[in-house]
Design brief:
Helix content is about 30%, strand content about 15%. By secondary structure, it is of the alpha/beta class. It folds into 2 domains: about 120 residues, Rossmann fold (3-Layer(aba) Sandwich); about 180 residues, Rossmann fold, CATH 3.40.50.720. The model has no long low-confidence stretch (mean pLDDT about 95). The protein is globular and about 65 Å long.
Length: about 325
C-alpha cells in the first residue's frame, strides 16, 4: 500500500515525525504542494491520498485507484464527497487535535489586546523607552482580564476549553444560546450576551445560519470597550462592518486568526486603513508543534483502522 501527501508544506516545516504513518504503508511520498494541472497524474498510482487543502473533485478522482483519502484537518469542503461515494473511496479527517493550541491562541489575542503588547513593543523598538524620563511607559491603556465577562459562541470542545482558560484568569463566563433559539440550560440569549460581554469569542461552525453572524446590528449592541475574538471561520463576521466599527472606535478592538478568503485579497477591508485596535494572525492558531504531530498520529490511526476493516473518523 503506497501513499502520497499532496501538500505536506501546509502541515510540516521539517519538524514533524512521520514515522507513525510510514509504519502503516509500504511507501510515503510527500510533495510540498500540488498544482491543479499536476493533480490527476500525480495521484493516479497511489492507494492512499493524504491532503490538507488541495481540492479533490470528481474530475481529479475518476481515474485514481485510491480507496482512502485522509484529510490532515477537520474541514471537508475541499473534497467532493459525493464523487468519493460514487467511486467507493473512504474519506477520513482529523478531530480535536488543535483544541489546546487554538484555545491558547484565543487567550493570547485577548491578552495582547488587553496589555497593548504590540504597541509597547513598538514603542521600545522606536527608542521611546530609552528617551523616557520615567522608569516605565504607560502610554497605552492596560486592562486586567480578571472580573471581565467573556462570552462564548459555540460551546463545543474548543469553546469549553476557552471558557476554562478564561476562568483561570478570573473571568466571568457567559455561553450564548444558538442565535434565534430560546435560551435555557445556562445559555444566554445571543443579543443579551452581546450587550454584556467585555470579550466575545467565536467557536461555532460556519453554516448558512452563522454566515455574517456578527454584522452591523450585532456590533452596535456591544459595549464600546468590548473586544471581538475569532479563531473559527472568517465569514462568521461581516468584515466591512467590523472594519468600520474599529475605525470609528464603536468597539474596543478585535483579534482575528481567520479571514473570509485566505490568504486575504488586496480588497480585504482590514488592510485598507490603519486599525491599531486590530490584531490579525495568519490562521496560525492551530499550528502548535504538538497539535500538528497529533494530526500525524490520527492519520496513522485512520490508515490502520481502515486497513483492518474498522475505519474511524469517517466523513464519507
Amino acid at each position: 500500500m503506497n501513499a502520497i501527501f499532496l501538500d505536506g508544506y501546509s502541515l510540516d516545516r521539517n519538524d514533524l515525525d512521520f514515522a507513525p504513518i510510514r509504519a502503516q504503508v509500504d511507501s510515503l511520498d510527500i510533495y510540498p504542494q500540488t498544482q491543479r494541472a499536476e493533480l490527476s497524474q500525480r495521484i493516479a498510482p497511489y492507494d492512499v491520498i493524504l491532503v490538507n487543502k488541495v481540492k479533490l473533485d470528481r474530475a481529479s478522482l475518476e481515474n485514481s485507484k485510491s480507496k482512502l483519502i485522509c484529510i490532515a484537518a477537520t474541514g471537508t469542503d475541499n473534497i467532493d464527497l459525493s464523487a468519493c461515494r460514487d467511486f467507493d473511496i473512504t474519506v477520513t479527517n482529523c478531530q480535536g487535535y488543535g483544541t489546546d493550541s487554538v484555545a491558547q491562541h484565543a487567550l493570547g489575542l485577548m491578552l495582547n489586546l488587553s496589555n497593548q503588547m504590540f504597541e509597547y513593543h513598538q514603542a521600545v523598538v522606536n527608542g521611546r523607552w530609552h528617551e523616557s524620563t520615567q522608569f516605565c511607559l504607560l502610554d497605552y491603556p492596560i486592562r486586567e482580564l480578571a472580573d471581565k465577562t467573556l462570552g462564548i459562541v459555540g460551546y463545543g470542545t474548543l469553546g469549553q476549553r476557552v471558557a476554562e482558560l478564561g476562568k483561570a484568569f478570573g473571568m466571568n463566563i457567559l455561553v450564548s444560546a444558538r442565535p434565534g433559539s430560546t435560551p435555557g440550560n445556562g445559555r444566554v440569549a445571543f443579543d443579551e450576551l452581546l450587550q454584556q460581554v467585555d470579550f466575545l469569542s467565536l467557536h461555532c461552525p460556519l453554516t448558512d445560519a452563522t454566515y455574517h453572524l456578527i454584522g452591523e446590528r450585532e456590533l452596535s449592541l456591544m459595549k464600546p470597550t468590548a473586544c471581538l475574538i475569532n479563531t473559527a471561520r472568517g465569514a462568521l463576521i461581516d468584515e466591512a462592518a467590523l472594519a468600520n466599527a474599529l475605525e470609528e472606535r464603536r468597539i474596543g478592538g478585535a483579534g482575528l486568526d481567520v479571514i473570509d478568503g485566505e490568504p486575504p485579497g488586496a480588497n480585504c477591508p482590514f488592510f485598507q486603513q490603519s486599525l491599531p485596535n486590530l490584531i490579525i494572525t495568519p490562521h496560525s492558531g492551530w499550528g502548535a508543534l504538538e497539535a500538528r504531530q497529533r494530526i500525524i498520529q490520527q492519520i496513522s490511526e485512520n490508515i490502520e483502522k481502515w486497513a483492518q476493516g474498522k475505519p474511524c473518523r469517517v466523513v464519507s
